[in-house]
Design a protein that fits this description.
The chain is an alpha/beta fold and about 700 residues long. Strand 18 and strand 19 form a beta hairpin. It is elongated, with a radius of gyration of 31 Å.
């Protein structure tokens, strides 16, 4: 018996060596798989952000996708798992800004080119480290095809999509209201915000013949109208009139308009309309052709149009204006008021709506095509309820702001006219004068929203439109990612994939839930409950960590991960090792290719094992990965190791040679097939034991999946 089996299993001595064995075999590359691998099966890896270490969320998708790829590879599919890394525009710049702050520097005032160069070096260093971490977690992806979201061919595809959208009148530059982060000095799309319930104050203000209710008295200087519901009998006589409303620095002449969006039961049913600082007011103003007057600047301070309040921050001005309204006897009353405030998802600061020129994509036509496909079940969602969630968002979609005022990212290839304000795509830098008015032009300094480029990831990575991989592997098979980014990413990939390729980018969407701490709460460094995937794998072995991630992890639901759980699967790995040692020790001289006459009991045991594997095969095919893993765990430990092997010990010591022969064949059959079935879940230990079996040839990674 091999001396390795005489020692306890040590993952730290095994995993790097085994991974190197796989990588050198070439079997991660579908072009180098044995001839029986014919039908393509493709997963495009959600590219991890190349700005830090992998976290538990990354480990989940790596484990699930690797599990599916290893399973399909054993089933004879020509598997391609294409790895990648994301420059992660805004998120990476935020991370780098924190680094600058620690160094006593700020991106503001830095030369944008220098800032980009610094962030690029930072990103590439983390990218290399991240790739090594993927290897440590067992990712059997094709490194020869790895892509980065800033690769020149990816950027060119993104540019071509932008130009096509513009030519098809689906991309436009417009002066519209956007979510503005005063800390990071950039606009954000609607899904990069969080709605946070906050306790506030509702101010009732005498406003001409009305009393209006508002949570933002500081914006009173930018009011352009008073709106009421046309069905509100209290106010119909005023509609169409112009009224005079006083404020602390003068008075405004405001038209009274009727709009059915006004809620008659909110406040007094009369609203002051400030289009420049409220998205609902902006929509009302658009419907009634009203102007917009900006009174808050990009830094969240009141501007010169607000008189003595100019220079005050919003909250300071709110308090000051309210006090002055009270002195003028215009403040009728105040009420405590809980309402949702839109905040930046990175810094949690309240966002300030601003009207500014940005690039937008008209989403309605793109969404309608996606809705049609999803409604026909041409895409399968796992779990199924995400279909309704995705459809609901698509049905209520709004135009997408794809401009970001940051240095790090894919630059928007466009020229802006200084005279008429037009924006014109200029991919090849060929435009020198505005084609609209003949005025001078300047390069657009903004970058694309990261999700605009990553939304094209499946077809861009495969070399659309003429690449051999695109022809062979697109559409892909499964998109596995976190349920929380179904709007950020999944829906956008569906829409942009249909738009560019006329095909859905994948036929199955598998959405895993959030990994939580033991108590179900969020993992947090401040709470000390964060599990580092690399550290925990180093302590207990990658196989144990992977089992801890899969078992109990129902698609789409949160799953608790904690050290004791992973430690339990370390014991399971030891059980596999010890049981394998016993079987190998007692079956070294048998010919496993020659089926022996079996006792009735051994035949029943083999049939039970075969039925189990057929059962878990169905589970994996139906994406019940957590159930498949749990069944394998219980079978190997409680049935094979605790029962079958224990009962076999007496037979192997007994006098009946035929029974011994049957028992040995049965033990080797179950071990061999259990190793195959366990391999997608626990690849390292199963491959190590496979190499120690006396009569196996080649690598378990390409061994045929067991059949009943």
């Amino acid at each position: 018996m091999n001396e390795k089996l005489l020692k306890p299993y040590n993952p730290n001595e095994t995993e790097e060596r085994i991974y190197k064995l796989w990588e050198e075999s070439g079997f991660f590359n579908p072009d180098k798989l044995p001839s029986r691998h014919t039908t393509p099966f493709t997963i495009i890896m959600p590219p991890p952000n190349a700005n830090g270490r992998l976290h538990a969320g990354h480990a989940v998708f790596i484990t699930i996708e690797d599990l599916l790829i290893r399973y399909k590879r054993m089933r004879g599919f020509k598997t391609l798992w294409l790895p990648g890394a994301d420059h992660a525009g805004f998120e990476t710049q935020v991370v780098y800004e924190k680094k600058l702050e620690k160094e006593g520097r700020s991106r503001f005032g830095m030369d944008p080119k220098l800032l980009r160069e610094e962030i690029l070096a930072f990103t590439l260093a983390h990218k290399s480290s991240m790739e090594n971490q993927l290897r440590q977690l067992g990712a059997s992806c094709d490194w020869s095809r790895e892509k980065f979201t800033l690769d020149s061919d990816i950027v060119r595809t993104v540019y071509d999509t932008f130009k096509k959208l513009y030519d098809d009148k689906l991309a436009y530059r417009g002066n519209r209201i956007v979510n503005w982060c005063t800390k990071h000095q950039t606009s954000l799309s609607d899904i990069e915000t969080e709605r946070v319930e906050q306790a506030g104050t509702l101010y009732y203000i005498t406003y001409g013949p009305f009393t209006v209710a508002t949570v933002r008295p500081e914006t009173i200087f930018g009011d352009v109208a008073i709106a009421v519901n046309p069905n509100d009998a209290r106010y119909t006589k005023y509609i169409g009139q112009t009224v005079t409303a006083k404020n602390p620095i003068g008075e405004l002449s405001l038209p009274v308009i009727g709009d059915e969006s006004v809620l008659m039961d909110f406040g007094t049913g009369a609203l002051k309309i400030t289009p420049a600082h409220d998205p609902n007011d902006f929509a009302i103003a658009e419907r009634h052709n009203l102007p917009a007057v900006s009174v808050i600047d990009q830094f969240g301070k009141l501007n010169e149009k607000t008189g003595k309040y100019g220079g005050m921050k919003v909250l300071e001005a709110r308090e000051a204006v309210a006090k002055d309204l009270e002195k003028m006897r215009l403040l009728v009353k105040t009420e405590n008021y809980a309402h949702a405030v839109i905040t930046c998802y990175k810094c949690n600061k309240t966002l300030e709506p601003r009207i500014m020129p940005q690039w937008f994509v008209k989403m309605r036509p793109l969404a309608d095509r996606a809705i049609e496909k999803i409604a026909k079940d041409e895409i399968r969602f796992v779990p199924e309820h995400y279909k309704k969630i995705c459809l609901a968002w698509l049905e209520n979609i709004i135009d997408w702001n794809i401009s970001r005022q940051i240095a790090w990212g894919i630059p928007i290839p466009a020229k802006l006219c200084e005279k008429c304000g037009a924006g014109i795509p200029d991919i090849d830098n060929a435009i020198s004068v505005c084609p609209v008015c003949g005025g001078s032009v300047v390069a657009d300094a903004d970058t694309f929203d990261t999700w605009f480029s990553s939304g094209q990831w499946p077809f861009a990575t495969l070399g659309y439109p003429d690449g051999a991989d695109y022809r062979a592997y697109y559409p892909t098979d499964v998109m596995e990612t976190a349920g929380e980014i179904i709007f950020f990413w999944v829906a956008r990939m569906i829409m942009l994939g249909l738009y560019r390729t006329e095909k859905l980018p994948f036929h199955t969407v598998y959405l895993h839930g959030i990994i939580t701490a033991k108590d179900g709460g969020k993992m947090s460094k401040s709470k000390g409950n964060v599990l580092d995937p690399i550290e925990i794998s180093g302590k207990y072995g990658t196989d144990a960590f992977r089992m801890g991630l899969v078992i109990g992890n129902t698609p789409g639901t949160s799953s608790a991960l904690y050290e004791e759980k992973i430690k339990g699967y370390k014991h399971f790995a030891n059980k596999i090792w010890n049981a394998s040692r016993f079987v190998i020790e007692n079956t070294e001289n048998i010919d496993t290719n020659k089926k022996t006459d079996l006792t009735k009991k051994d035949e029943e045991i083999i049939n039970e094992c075969a039925s189990l594997i057929a059962d878990i095969t169905k589970d994996i095919d139906e994406y019940r990965l957590h159930l498949a893993a749990e069944k394998l765990y219980h079978y190997f430990w409680h049935t094979f190791a605790d029962k079958i092997i224990e009962e076999a010990k007496a037979i192997l010591k007994g006098p009946d040679d035929e029974a011994k022969k049957s028992c040995r064949y049965m033990l080797r059959y179950i071990l061999t097939n259990s190793l195959k079935a366990l391999h997608p879940f626990m690849p390292f230990i199963t491959e190590e034991i496979w190499q120690l079996l006396p009569d196996t040839k080649g690598l378990l990674i390409v061994e045929e999946w067991p059949k009943k």
